[in-house]
Amino acid sequence: MNKIHQKVLQKNRVRLLQDLNVSDLILDSLVGEFIITDDESSKILAERGPKNQARAFLTLLPRKGTQAFSAFVAALNQADGSVHAELATILEADATKLGLPVGGRPAPDGRQPGYSQQVSNPEKESSCASGAMAVSSSSSSGASASSGDGWPVKVQTADEDVRMIEAEKVSGTEQTDYSRAYDMVNNPHGLALIINNKNFTCGMKARMGSDVDARQLKEAFEATGFTTHVTTNATGRQMRDNLYSLAIHDHSKYDAVMVAILSHGIDGKIYGTDGDLVLVSEITSFFRGDRAKTLVGKPKIFFLQACRGGSFDDGIEETDGPSDQTDEEREEQLFKKFLDSTPSSDETDGYLGTLPVEADMLLAYATVPGYVSWRNSEKGSWFIQALVKVIHEDAKEDHLMDMLTRVNDMVATEFQSKGRQKQMPAPVTHLRKKFFLRPPRKSGRFF
Question: H/E element holding 269?
Answer without folding.
Answer: strand 269-271
